[in-house]
Batch of 2 targets.
Target 1
Amino acid sequence: MRRLRNLAVPFVRAVVLGALTAAVALTTHSVLYGAYPGPNGPIYFSSNRSGNYDLWRMNADGSDAVNLTNSSIDEFDPQPSPDGTRVAYRLNGDIWVIHSDGSAATQLTTLGGDEPYWSPDGSKILFSSARDGAADIYLMNADGSLQTRLTFGGGRGSPQFSPDGSRIVYTNTDGGTYEIHVMNADGTNDVQLTNHPAYDFLPSFSPDGTRIAWMTQRDGNFEIYVMNADGSNPVNLTNSPDDDSHPDWSPDGTLIAFHSHVGGGDAEIMVMNPDGTNAHPVTLDSTIDARPRWARGLPTPPPSTYAATVQPPISTAGNSVFRANRGVVPVKFTLSDDGAPTCDLPAATISVTRTAGTVVGEVNQSEYAHPSDNGINFRISDCQYVYSLSASSLGTGTYRVDIRIDNSVVGSAMFALH
């Protein structure tokens, strides 16, 4: 089984030589991606669980792992987009992108590309490439168009935007050592942050932009360090006899994911606090799980300001009674937004619950939908939500009708069928 134990040295040599070959792909390419501010979502990673290296996604605790690519070709370096809908990655020495469910694979570069990293707004992708003879940093639109070279010195790689998109942090090997640099997003105003004879490379901005995590060999083996964004106050976080690498900040900045050769074994995904405490594995198996990339979670929606009010023929008092054989009970609601009536009506759905009668509980839509209805969706007519309940199909009983917007109940109505 292939291992990742000494992946860092080959990576740096490959940057210097500008030759990033598929034969040593997993041990020569790596990039630390920070995360954009936001709630924590799933973790993407590379793994050979299926025999070759595929892109995988799992919950942050290691549960519900899903193979996204499941192909016979090795894929590496998954990088989720800021909105979580797409994943950029490397395949056969070029940058590709897929939907977050693994579908619709699209090739973005054809002249070589590595280490993709999205801009904070998701409109552009940074990457490194040796297409012009030496490894430099490039920028392209998210669809692969307008590929532009930003650096010209060679020996540059692992680029990453700052959270506000104004700067790029990267690895520079210009002076014969491996140092962390930062520059403006257009490639100007280059500043060296580290100055040490050991390898310092693969930097990663914290979500608030105040710190940079990186991988270094200052203590003999590979450790994860963190420093201030100006290069001051470097601190060893892992301090372990194991080789630790590829840190990636959680989107909320409270955790760092990385991979470690625990006990000298194969790479496993680990999670720790930003001060290095509480480091623990979230994968632990006999295969290689490496290069974690944390995605943003879906934000919690704000409390709804909508309120729906039932209209005749159903009474707001909840005491309306209709004949079960009448055919149709029209359900109508008007809407207010933050207390003000509105005709700007978003999509809404209906649910019906039998509160008394033959079988109490939620009623299947097939029992009450009228031919004029569209599944569980309300129609919109004359500034009202309208749904035609099939009374004869419902049968005698007492019923509650709920109207939902964005899956939240914003209004209800009660009536009886006799």
Target 2
Amino acid sequence: MAIRCSDTLTMPGGEQRAETLIAAAPSRAWQRLSTGAGAHGPREFDWTRIPVRPGWEPGRGHWLLARRSISDPAEIAYYACYGPRRSSTTDLAWIAGSRWHIEIGHRWYPSSCTVFSWSCSSVIAGFLFGRVPSSSGVVAGRACPALA
């Protein structure tokens, strides 16, 4: 789920702003990843993640994910993520980047998604990680056409 840079996340030392946590990440923590082809070529960004929320459920994890523009490193998008503990930065980046695919599919087939107020990422995350929210835009057990 996309969040603001000023949103706070729970860390062992207390609440901290997303932008502060990412600013403290070492340069080696960033990975250049593509989240697929876009209208103007590959959608490549630098990505990093930081584990957040102490007291994880067994086998599950919470992360702060950040996407940094290659052309303008000051342009950073932030995401709050939840999923299997084994999820890699690549997995989380792909899910965050897949929102575009869902939105395009929704424009092409608007009647296929019943409730579109949920974060599109939750639809993808549900299918990838085996948890589909009851109002996640799934019709008769089938995802929006962009996922099919």
